[in-house]
Specification:
Elements: H1 3-17, H2 64-69, E1 77-83, H3 90-100, E2 106-112, H4 120-128, E3 135-137, H5 146-151, E4 156-160, H6 174-178, E5 182-185, H7 193-202, H8 204-213, H9 225-284, H10 286-305
Parallel strand pairs: 1-2, 1-4, 2-3, 4-5
Protein backbone atom coordinates (compact mmCIF):
# COMPACT_ATOMS: atom_id res chain seq x y z
CA UNK A 1 0.00 0.00 0.00
CA UNK A 2 1.45 3.38 -0.95
CA UNK A 3 1.66 6.37 1.37
CA UNK A 4 -1.13 8.25 -0.44
CA UNK A 5 -3.65 5.42 -0.01
CA UNK A 6 -2.68 4.99 3.64
CA UNK A 7 -3.27 8.71 4.26
CA UNK A 8 -6.72 8.53 2.67
CA UNK A 9 -7.71 5.52 4.82
CA UNK A 10 -6.50 7.21 8.01
CA UNK A 11 -8.40 10.36 7.08
CA UNK A 12 -11.59 8.30 6.62
CA UNK A 13 -11.06 6.70 10.04
CA UNK A 14 -10.58 10.09 11.68
CA UNK A 15 -13.73 11.42 10.07
CA UNK A 16 -15.69 8.43 11.33
CA UNK A 17 -14.35 8.63 14.88
CA UNK A 18 -14.41 12.42 15.18
CA UNK A 19 -17.32 13.76 17.21
CA UNK A 20 -19.93 15.94 15.58
CA UNK A 21 -21.77 18.94 17.06
CA UNK A 22 -21.76 19.07 20.87
CA UNK A 23 -19.47 16.02 20.95
CA UNK A 24 -22.05 13.73 19.28
CA UNK A 25 -21.02 10.75 17.15
CA UNK A 26 -22.91 8.45 14.83
CA UNK A 27 -23.11 5.87 17.64
CA UNK A 28 -25.13 8.36 19.72
CA UNK A 29 -27.88 8.40 17.11
CA UNK A 30 -27.09 12.00 16.13
CA UNK A 31 -25.49 12.23 12.67
CA UNK A 32 -22.25 14.16 12.62
CA UNK A 33 -22.19 17.14 10.30
CA UNK A 34 -20.18 17.38 7.11
CA UNK A 35 -18.52 20.50 5.84
CA UNK A 36 -20.81 22.48 3.59
CA UNK A 37 -20.90 25.76 1.76
CA UNK A 38 -23.07 27.99 3.92
CA UNK A 39 -22.85 31.52 5.24
CA UNK A 40 -25.17 31.18 8.23
CA UNK A 41 -22.35 30.34 10.62
CA UNK A 42 -20.36 33.53 9.99
CA UNK A 43 -22.91 36.10 8.86
CA UNK A 44 -26.71 36.51 8.72
CA UNK A 45 -28.61 34.05 6.56
CA UNK A 46 -29.64 35.51 3.18
CA UNK A 47 -33.21 36.02 2.00
CA UNK A 48 -34.56 33.57 -0.55
CA UNK A 49 -35.31 36.31 -3.05
CA UNK A 50 -31.67 37.44 -2.93
CA UNK A 51 -30.23 34.03 -3.90
CA UNK A 52 -29.49 33.14 -7.50
CA UNK A 53 -30.94 29.73 -8.36
CA UNK A 54 -29.77 27.69 -11.34
CA UNK A 55 -33.12 26.72 -12.83
CA UNK A 56 -31.47 24.79 -15.66
CA UNK A 57 -30.75 21.90 -13.30
CA UNK A 58 -33.85 19.88 -12.43
CA UNK A 59 -34.57 19.42 -8.74
CA UNK A 60 -35.29 15.83 -7.78
CA UNK A 61 -36.57 15.27 -4.26
CA UNK A 62 -34.57 12.94 -2.05
CA UNK A 63 -36.31 10.20 -0.13
CA UNK A 64 -36.25 9.88 3.65
CA UNK A 65 -33.87 6.92 3.34
CA UNK A 66 -31.49 8.86 1.10
CA UNK A 67 -31.64 11.90 3.38
CA UNK A 68 -30.72 9.85 6.46
CA UNK A 69 -27.73 8.33 4.69
CA UNK A 70 -25.61 11.43 3.97
CA UNK A 71 -26.20 13.15 0.68
CA UNK A 72 -23.29 14.67 -1.25
CA UNK A 73 -22.00 17.99 -0.01
CA UNK A 74 -23.24 19.78 -3.12
CA UNK A 75 -26.76 18.35 -2.65
CA UNK A 76 -27.91 19.03 0.92
CA UNK A 77 -31.37 17.99 2.06
CA UNK A 78 -33.54 21.11 1.83
CA UNK A 79 -35.73 21.34 4.94
CA UNK A 80 -38.35 24.04 5.43
CA UNK A 81 -39.53 25.27 8.85
CA UNK A 82 -41.96 28.14 9.30
CA UNK A 83 -43.34 30.21 12.15
CA UNK A 84 -44.25 33.68 13.31
CA UNK A 85 -41.12 34.08 15.50
CA UNK A 86 -42.48 37.04 17.43
CA UNK A 87 -40.26 38.11 20.36
CA UNK A 88 -37.70 35.52 19.22
CA UNK A 89 -36.67 33.24 22.13
CA UNK A 90 -35.26 29.80 22.90
CA UNK A 91 -38.65 28.22 22.21
CA UNK A 92 -38.12 29.27 18.58
CA UNK A 93 -34.42 28.43 18.35
CA UNK A 94 -34.67 24.89 19.70
CA UNK A 95 -37.09 23.57 17.02
CA UNK A 96 -34.84 25.17 14.39
CA UNK A 97 -31.89 23.33 15.93
CA UNK A 98 -33.87 20.07 15.72
CA UNK A 99 -34.76 20.77 12.12
CA UNK A 100 -31.14 21.53 11.30
CA UNK A 101 -30.05 18.20 12.79
CA UNK A 102 -32.70 16.04 11.13
CA UNK A 103 -30.18 14.80 8.56
CA UNK A 104 -26.38 14.73 8.26
CA UNK A 105 -26.37 17.33 5.49
CA UNK A 106 -29.26 19.77 5.99
CA UNK A 107 -29.97 23.11 4.34
CA UNK A 108 -32.55 24.85 6.54
CA UNK A 109 -35.02 27.26 4.96
CA UNK A 110 -37.13 29.25 7.42
CA UNK A 111 -40.36 30.96 6.46
CA UNK A 112 -41.46 33.95 8.55
CA UNK A 113 -45.22 34.58 8.67
CA UNK A 114 -47.14 37.73 9.63
CA UNK A 115 -49.45 38.81 12.55
CA UNK A 116 -47.04 39.94 15.25
CA UNK A 117 -46.04 42.48 17.92
CA UNK A 118 -42.60 43.04 16.39
CA UNK A 119 -42.54 44.37 12.85
CA UNK A 120 -41.43 42.18 9.96
CA UNK A 121 -37.91 43.58 9.63
CA UNK A 122 -37.21 43.00 13.33
CA UNK A 123 -38.36 39.39 13.08
CA UNK A 124 -36.45 38.78 9.86
CA UNK A 125 -33.30 40.12 11.48
CA UNK A 126 -33.74 37.89 14.55
CA UNK A 127 -34.18 34.74 12.45
CA UNK A 128 -31.30 35.67 10.13
CA UNK A 129 -28.93 35.79 13.10
CA UNK A 130 -29.90 32.32 14.35
CA UNK A 131 -26.87 30.26 13.26
CA UNK A 132 -28.98 27.17 12.48
CA UNK A 133 -30.65 29.03 9.59
CA UNK A 134 -29.28 28.96 6.03
CA UNK A 135 -32.00 30.91 4.23
CA UNK A 136 -34.98 33.08 5.19
CA UNK A 137 -38.24 33.35 3.26
CA UNK A 138 -39.96 36.69 3.76
CA UNK A 139 -43.75 36.87 4.13
CA UNK A 140 -44.07 33.08 4.02
CA UNK A 141 -47.58 31.67 3.46
CA UNK A 142 -49.47 30.04 6.33
CA UNK A 143 -50.38 27.09 4.09
CA UNK A 144 -47.58 25.61 1.97
CA UNK A 145 -48.79 25.17 -1.58
CA UNK A 146 -47.26 22.78 -4.13
CA UNK A 147 -46.05 25.83 -6.05
CA UNK A 148 -44.22 27.16 -2.97
CA UNK A 149 -42.61 23.79 -2.31
CA UNK A 150 -41.46 23.54 -5.93
CA UNK A 151 -40.19 27.13 -6.06
CA UNK A 152 -37.94 26.63 -3.05
CA UNK A 153 -37.06 23.03 -3.95
CA UNK A 154 -38.11 21.76 -0.53
CA UNK A 155 -37.53 18.11 0.34
CA UNK A 156 -39.08 18.05 3.81
CA UNK A 157 -41.08 20.30 6.12
CA UNK A 158 -40.13 20.39 9.82
CA UNK A 159 -42.66 21.40 12.47
CA UNK A 160 -44.17 20.12 15.71
CA UNK A 161 -46.87 17.50 15.22
CA UNK A 162 -49.74 19.47 16.79
CA UNK A 163 -52.51 20.11 14.21
CA UNK A 164 -52.77 23.79 13.21
CA UNK A 165 -56.18 24.71 11.83
CA UNK A 166 -56.85 27.19 9.08
CA UNK A 167 -59.78 28.25 6.94
CA UNK A 168 -61.26 25.07 5.46
CA UNK A 169 -58.70 22.73 7.07
CA UNK A 170 -58.18 21.15 10.49
CA UNK A 171 -54.45 20.74 9.86
CA UNK A 172 -52.48 22.97 7.48
CA UNK A 173 -49.76 20.28 7.26
CA UNK A 174 -52.12 17.43 6.40
CA UNK A 175 -51.16 17.31 2.72
CA UNK A 176 -47.47 17.50 3.66
CA UNK A 177 -47.86 14.49 5.97
CA UNK A 178 -49.76 12.53 3.34
CA UNK A 179 -46.96 13.21 0.83
CA UNK A 180 -44.36 11.80 3.25
CA UNK A 181 -42.58 15.17 3.48
CA UNK A 182 -43.29 15.93 7.16
CA UNK A 183 -40.46 15.70 9.73
CA UNK A 184 -41.80 16.32 13.27
CA UNK A 185 -39.92 18.36 15.89
CA UNK A 186 -40.58 18.77 19.62
CA UNK A 187 -42.02 21.89 21.22
CA UNK A 188 -40.09 23.63 24.00
CA UNK A 189 -42.24 23.48 27.10
CA UNK A 190 -42.39 26.38 29.52
CA UNK A 191 -41.74 29.23 27.10
CA UNK A 192 -43.69 30.77 24.25
CA UNK A 193 -44.47 34.19 22.87
CA UNK A 194 -47.92 34.03 24.48
CA UNK A 195 -46.31 33.27 27.85
CA UNK A 196 -43.95 36.23 27.54
CA UNK A 197 -46.80 38.59 26.58
CA UNK A 198 -48.85 37.26 29.52
CA UNK A 199 -45.97 38.05 31.90
CA UNK A 200 -45.74 41.59 30.51
CA UNK A 201 -49.48 42.18 30.89
CA UNK A 202 -49.50 40.67 34.39
CA UNK A 203 -46.54 42.79 35.57
CA UNK A 204 -47.40 45.83 33.47
CA UNK A 205 -47.02 48.32 36.36
CA UNK A 206 -43.51 47.05 37.15
CA UNK A 207 -42.33 47.35 33.55
CA UNK A 208 -44.01 50.75 33.09
CA UNK A 209 -42.29 52.16 36.18
CA UNK A 210 -38.94 50.66 35.13
CA UNK A 211 -39.12 52.21 31.66
CA UNK A 212 -40.21 55.58 33.05
CA UNK A 213 -37.05 55.51 35.19
CA UNK A 214 -34.99 54.72 32.10
CA UNK A 215 -36.21 57.88 30.38
CA UNK A 216 -39.21 56.78 28.33
CA UNK A 217 -42.08 59.26 28.33
CA UNK A 218 -45.60 58.47 29.48
CA UNK A 219 -46.79 59.07 25.92
CA UNK A 220 -44.37 56.49 24.51
CA UNK A 221 -45.60 53.94 27.06
CA UNK A 222 -49.27 54.90 26.55
CA UNK A 223 -49.53 55.72 30.26
CA UNK A 224 -52.22 58.15 31.41
CA UNK A 225 -51.42 61.32 33.37
CA UNK A 226 -52.91 59.89 36.59
CA UNK A 227 -50.98 56.62 36.29
CA UNK A 228 -47.77 58.50 35.58
CA UNK A 229 -48.17 60.48 38.83
CA UNK A 230 -49.06 57.27 40.67
CA UNK A 231 -45.90 55.53 39.40
CA UNK A 232 -43.73 58.50 40.42
CA UNK A 233 -45.31 58.51 43.89
CA UNK A 234 -44.74 54.76 44.21
CA UNK A 235 -41.12 55.28 43.19
CA UNK A 236 -40.60 57.89 45.94
CA UNK A 237 -42.29 55.64 48.52
CA UNK A 238 -40.05 52.74 47.48
CA UNK A 239 -36.97 54.95 47.90
CA UNK A 240 -38.07 55.91 51.42
CA UNK A 241 -38.70 52.24 52.23
CA UNK A 242 -35.25 51.36 50.94
CA UNK A 243 -33.62 54.03 53.10
CA UNK A 244 -35.50 52.82 56.19
CA UNK A 245 -34.47 49.26 55.42
CA UNK A 246 -30.82 50.33 55.01
CA UNK A 247 -30.95 52.16 58.37
CA UNK A 248 -32.46 49.10 60.02
CA UNK A 249 -29.77 46.84 58.60
CA UNK A 250 -27.02 49.22 59.73
CA UNK A 251 -28.61 49.45 63.19
CA UNK A 252 -28.70 45.67 63.44
CA UNK A 253 -25.03 45.51 62.46
CA UNK A 254 -24.16 48.13 65.11
CA UNK A 255 -26.12 46.32 67.85
CA UNK A 256 -24.50 43.05 66.86
CA UNK A 257 -21.02 44.59 67.09
CA UNK A 258 -21.85 46.10 70.54
CA UNK A 259 -23.11 42.73 71.74
CA UNK A 260 -19.96 41.00 70.50
CA UNK A 261 -17.78 43.66 72.19
CA UNK A 262 -19.77 43.38 75.45
CA UNK A 263 -19.40 39.61 75.49
CA UNK A 264 -15.67 39.97 74.92
CA UNK A 265 -15.35 42.50 77.78
CA UNK A 266 -17.37 40.31 80.15
CA UNK A 267 -15.21 37.30 79.35
CA UNK A 268 -12.04 39.30 80.00
CA UNK A 269 -13.51 40.70 83.27
CA UNK A 270 -14.37 37.18 84.43
CA UNK A 271 -10.83 35.98 83.69
CA UNK A 272 -9.28 38.93 85.58
CA UNK A 273 -11.73 38.43 88.47
CA UNK A 274 -10.74 34.79 88.83
CA UNK A 275 -7.07 35.76 88.84
CA UNK A 276 -7.69 38.47 91.48
CA UNK A 277 -9.74 36.18 93.72
CA UNK A 278 -7.12 33.42 93.45
CA UNK A 279 -4.35 35.82 94.40
CA UNK A 280 -6.41 37.19 97.31
CA UNK A 281 -7.15 33.75 98.70
CA UNK A 282 -3.55 32.69 98.30
CA UNK A 283 -2.40 35.72 100.26
CA UNK A 284 -5.13 36.13 102.90
CA UNK A 285 -6.60 32.69 103.20
CA UNK A 286 -6.09 30.51 106.34
CA UNK A 287 -2.74 29.14 105.19
CA UNK A 288 -1.80 32.17 103.20
CA UNK A 289 -2.39 34.53 106.16
CA UNK A 290 -0.11 32.53 108.51
CA UNK A 291 2.64 32.40 105.94
CA UNK A 292 2.18 36.08 105.31
CA UNK A 293 2.39 36.92 109.04
CA UNK A 294 5.49 34.78 109.60
CA UNK A 295 7.06 36.27 106.54
CA UNK A 296 6.21 39.78 107.68
CA UNK A 297 7.39 39.12 111.27
CA UNK A 298 10.68 37.66 110.20
CA UNK A 299 11.26 40.55 107.93
CA UNK A 300 10.66 43.06 110.69
CA UNK A 301 13.04 41.29 113.10
CA UNK A 302 15.78 41.30 110.53
CA UNK A 303 15.18 44.98 109.89
CA UNK A 304 15.43 45.71 113.66
CA UNK A 305 18.62 43.76 114.21
CA UNK A 306 20.63 44.59 111.11
CA UNK A 307 21.31 48.32 111.83
CA UNK A 308 22.63 47.67 115.39
CA UNK A 309 25.16 45.00 114.51
CA UNK A 310 28.54 45.72 112.92
CA UNK A 311 31.89 43.85 112.85
CA UNK A 312 33.80 46.58 114.78
CA UNK A 313 31.24 47.32 117.42
CA UNK A 314 30.03 43.85 118.07
CA UNK A 315 30.08 43.26 121.88
CA UNK A 316 32.66 40.79 123.28
CA UNK A 317 32.13 39.00 126.46
CA UNK A 318 35.20 38.66 128.77
CA UNK A 319 35.93 35.24 129.90
CA UNK A 320 35.83 34.81 133.64
CA UNK A 321 39.11 33.82 135.07
CA UNK A 322 39.33 30.25 135.78
CA UNK A 323 39.88 29.15 139.32
CA UNK A 324 42.79 26.97 139.83
CA UNK A 325 42.90 24.71 142.73
Amino acid sequence: MDAHSSTKINARKRRKEAPGPNGATEEDGIPSKVQRCAVGLRQPAPFSDEIEVDLSKPCVRVTMEEARKRTPCERPVRVHADGIFDLFHSGHARPLMQAKNLFPNTYLIVGVCSFTVMNENERYDAVQHCHYVDEVVRNAPWTLTPEFLAEHRIDFVAHDDIPYSSAGSDDVYKHIKEAGMFAPTQRTEGISTSDIITRIVRDYDVYARRNLQRGYTAKELNVSFINEKKYHLQERVDKVKKKVKDVEEKSKEFVQKVEEKSIDLIQKWEEKSREFIGSFLEMFGPEGALKHMLKEGKGRMLQAISPKQSPSSSPTRERSPSLSF
